[in-house]
């Protein structure tokens, strides 16, 4: 039986990927094979980095990639509210379908696997999570259940109860930035059945802009496979960058216990790019990130950081303002055309 790790990346998140791979190498406690699923074809730097590592490979199963992009696209097309909102916002029908490539881990080469978003850092051994998969089909370790359910499912309470046939599901939802499972946990028959349900109307329960997170939550909860969330039990540690952790030798601790991983969720990739270029960007646990990013190339680590000039800040603000105005005008134009057609 082969256990491994998957992540999803391209050159846009190159700095985060290097930091993640280094954190896995030094904190996993043993060598664990890693597959990097390409987010798109922009992976020249990623491929060069992979070639320097013995235990890291590029996931190049084109059939699997096409399969999950098609699966996700069909779900999106069946979500009428999502399609309408994307049209109004000027987004294409296939908006960011690359996100569904994350689901390639479900039929990849590892018997048991753990998926890491590219903007995460591993802080401790993963052995207990692989062992937990002997008891459960799906394992998570986050506090999504303490957030608003609308981040996962966005429909009426009656509809949600009807689809999942239970009164409350808030304790079962999870962030798709980190999870553990098994190869083919959803067999072809199960997936075909779930897709049929989605295309027959159940897609309405998904968050308006059907992402990998809402889809994965649907697949796990609707299929009824067994799941376990460490964060729903005593002595669980946090993982979000906004939490207050203690730092000891570049390991983060939550009330004396090492956390499993740090997730830089919602922080833009450009912030990390600017930081690594020597710009003074305020990122939580910045020194920890830089430690792992330049673990193998300390001579390349920025020694000082410069604040962007007033002109640069003004240009960025102006570009954002003008861009938003253009989007607003395009939206008004499309709405006007729709009214004329009616």
Automatic annotation (TrEMBL):
Transmembrane segments: none annotated. InterPro entries: Npun_R2821-like, Nucleotide-diphossugar_trans. The keyword Membrane does not apply. Keywords: Transferase. One of its GO terms (molecular function) is transferase activity. NCBIfam families: Npun_R2823_gen. This is Sugar transferase. It comes from Anabaena lutea FACHB-196.
């Amino acid at each position: 039986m082969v256990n491994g790790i998957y992540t999803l990346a391209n050159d846009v998140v190159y700095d985060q990927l290097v930091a993640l791979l280094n954190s896995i190498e030094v904190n996993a406690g043993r060598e664990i094979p890693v597959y990097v699923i390409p987010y798109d074809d922009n992976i020249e730097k990623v491929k060069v980095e992979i070639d320097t590592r013995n235990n890291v490979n590029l996931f190049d199963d084109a059939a699997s990639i096409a399969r999950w992009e098609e699966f996700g696209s069909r779900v999106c097309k069946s979500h009428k509210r999502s399609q309408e909102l994307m049209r109004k916002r000027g987004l294409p029908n296939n908006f960011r379908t690359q996100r569904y490539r994350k689901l390639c881990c479900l039929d990849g080469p590892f018997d048991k696997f753990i998926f890491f978003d590219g903007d995460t850092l591993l802080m401790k051994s993963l052995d207990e999570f692989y062992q937990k998969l002997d008891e459960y089909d799906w394992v998570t370790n986050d506090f999504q259940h303490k957030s608003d359910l609308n981040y996962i499912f966005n429909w009426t309470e009656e509809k949600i109860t009807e689809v999942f046939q239970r009164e409350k599901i808030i304790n079962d939802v999870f962030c798709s930035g980190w999870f553990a499972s098994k190869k083919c946990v959803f067999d072809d028959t199960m997936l075909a059945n779930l897709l049929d349900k989605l295309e027959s109307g159940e897609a309405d329960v998904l968050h308006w802009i059907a992402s990998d997170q809402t889809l994965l939550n649907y697949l796990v909860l609707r299929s009824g496979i067994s799941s376990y969330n460490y964060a729903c039990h005593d002595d669980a540690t946090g993982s979000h960058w906004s939490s207050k952790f203690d730092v000891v030798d570049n390991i983060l601790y939550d009330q004396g216990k090492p956390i499993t991983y740090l997730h830089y969720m919602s922080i833009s990739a450009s912030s990390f790019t600017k930081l690594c270029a020597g710009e003074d960007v305020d990122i939580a646990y910045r020194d920890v990130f830089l430690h792992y990013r330049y673990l193998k190339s300390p001579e390349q680590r920025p020694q000082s950081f410069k604040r962007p000039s007033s002109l640069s800040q003004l240009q960025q603000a102006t570009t954002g303002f003008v861009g938003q105005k253009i989007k607003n005008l395009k939206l008004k134009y499309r709405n006007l055309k729709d009214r004329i057609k009616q």
